[in-house]
Amino acid sequence: MAYVITDDCTACGTCIDECPVEAISEGDIYKIDPDICTDCGSCADVCPVEAIHPEE
């Protein structure tokens, strides 16, 4: 189960450096590649606007 980034994302860049497998790509709203994500949660732990959650 991968993590997803919601529309609340402010593209601050905090999460991108935390991902150990480089699954996050930049954009107006960042995106997580579910095929690469290892479900570690590091990105969600550092997101200042709590825009990253486990996929439901």
TL;DR of this structure?
By secondary structure, the chain is mainly β. The chain has one helix at 42-46; strands at residues 3-5, 24-25, 31-32, 52-54.
Biggest sheet overview: 2 strands, antiparallel
Work out the radius of gyration.
10 Å
Total separate domains: 1
**H/E topology pattern:** EEEHE
Q: Determine the structural class based on helices, strands and strand pairing.
A: mainly beta
**CATH classification class:** Alpha Beta
Helix content: under 10%
What would CATH call the architecture? 2-Layer Sandwich
Number of strands: 4
What does this protein structure show overall?
By secondary structure, the protein is mainly beta. It has a single domain, classed as Alpha-Beta Plaits. Helices cover 9% and strands 18% of the residues. The chain has one helix and four strands, in the order βββαβ. The protein has one helix spanning 42-46, and strands spanning 3-5, 24-25, 31-32, 52-54. A two-stranded antiparallel sheet has the order 1-4. The longest helix is centred in the last third of the chain and has 5 residues, at 42-46. The radius of gyration is 10 Å and the shape is globular. The N and C termini lie close together (8 Å).
